[in-house]
Design brief:
This protein is α/β, with parallel strands linked by helices and 332 residues long. The protein has helices at residues 11-20, 57-65, 83-89, 101-117, 119-127, 153-164, 178-184, 191-197, 217-222, 240-249, 279-285, 301-319; strands at 2-6, 24-28, 46-49, 70-73, 92-94, 145-149, 168-172, 187-188, 200-203, 227-231, 252-257, 290-292, 329-330. The strands form 2 sheets. It has a 7-stranded parallel sheet, sandwiched between helices. It has a 6-stranded mixed sheet with strand order 2-1-3-4-5-13, sandwiched between helices. The site of nicotinamide-adenine-dinucleotide has 29 residues, from helix 4 and helix 6.
């Protein structure tokens, strides 16, 4: 039976992994994986990690010295894994390339609707028997221009949802797929034009050196006054300080985030009885037109089932000497 140490485990992770397979000897850890915790994987052939674990060269070296041969990421992104170090140590890295683009796309739309129609504020008011409507005015999405940055799996689902609302959809992608766009009634354009025209801008690109701070001071200055920004991809796509500045000046009309630059050690945790040290996060929470969820866009039953199934498949294939399924292995 292959032995696997799993890190940053929440109850839903445990359920989805155990439901996918009884033939793995799981060691579940609530703490995150890093160089300082890697010794806990001693005796395991593989580790299973998530978005906020730190698999840098030191961590991978320590894992290798304890006999670990496989890192199975239970997520799509792998920006927190030093792939070069893994390759030089002979550690193979797998991931779950897609679990449910619908989960993430639908959450981004849910955030936008909540923010625009002030559902979060209305919910709290009504619970306090305050049935007034002051300050709850939103706008019709119908007829508005939505800018989709990144038309991969999630961006395409989101574009289709916005088309369903009767929006004009403008898209920007480094590798545009014109036949998909023509079939869906989506128009590709360059980034400056998208920034200039869109009433709503939603991000669906991965975090890469060239997408880091794709929304910075200059990008914000190019946008329409009152633009709404939605980010369910990665926190570092947006320069938080610049967005705070644009919110204070009124340039930006609203921001909905499921990811945040400095989310590590904060998101996924219950810090309700602690003093939060991150001043920008607290400043963001002080705006009535900012809505934040803590990296939950993926959290649907369907996505969790798929994450469990593919992660277990990756673990079992590599432990029995088979090749992992197509697109699941990542190399540098
Ligand atoms: P994908 O790989 O299918 O699509 C990414 C798209 O971005 C591709 O079309 C690609 O061509 C485009 N792209 C890459 N570099 C670009 C650049 N420099 N400029 C413009 N476009 C560029 O990925 P996906 O499955 O759609 O996921 C998108 C992102 O969503 C992931 O990278 C991840 O960061 C994020 N995500 C978040 C959650 C969550 O729970 N919040 C869950 C899953 C994924």
């Amino acid at each position: 039976m292959t032995r696997v140490a799993v890190y940053d485990v929440k109850s839903y992770d445990r359920q989805c992994l155990e439901a996918a397979s009884g033939s793995i000897d799981w060691e579940f850890h609530e703490f995150r994986l890093s160089a300082s915790t890697a010794a806990s994987a001693a005796g395991c052939e593989a580790v299973c990690a998530f978005v906020n674990d730190t698999l840098d060269a030191d961590c991978l070296q320590a894992l290798s010295s304890h006999g670990v041969k496989h890192v199975a990421m239970r997520c799509a992104g792998y920006n927190n894994v030093d792939l070069r170090a893994a390759a030089s140590l002979g550690i193979r890295v797998t991931r779950v390339p897609a679990y449910s683009p619908y989960a993430v796309a639908e959450h981004s739309v849910a955030l936008l609707l909540t923010l625009n129609r002030k559902i979060h504020r209305a919910y709290n008011r009504v619970r306090e028997q305050n049935f007034s409507l002051g300050g709850l005015v939103g706008f019709d999405l119908h007829g508005k221009t939505v800018g989709i940055i990144g038309t991969g799996k999630i961006g395409r689902v989101a574009a289709n949802i916005f088309k369903g609302f009767g929006c004009e959809v403008l898209a920007y992608d480094k590798f545009p797929d014109q036949s998909w766009a023509a079939a869906c009634g989506v128009e590709y354009t360059d980034l400056p034009n998208l920034l200039r025209k869109a009433h709503v801008i939603s991000l669906y690109v991965p975090l890469l050196p060239e997408t880091h701070y794709i929304i910075d001071e200059n990008a914000l200055a190019a946008m329409r006054d009152g633009v709404i920004l939605v980010n369910t991809s990665r926190g570092k796509l947006i320069h938080t300080k610049a967005v705070i500045h644009a919110l204070k000046s009124g340039k930006v009309g609203g921001v909905a985030l499921d990811v945040y630059e400095e989310e590590q050690g904060v998101f996924f945790e219950d810090l309700s009885d602690q003093v939060i040290q991150n001043d920008e996060l607290i400043r963001l929470q002080g705006f009535p037109n900012v809505l934040i969820t803590a990296h939950q866009a993926f959290l649907t039953e369907e996505a969790l089932r798929q994450i469990g199934k593919v992660t277990v498949d990756n673990l079992l294939r590599l432990s029995t000497g088979s090749e992992p399924a197509e697109h699941t292995e990542v190399t540098c």
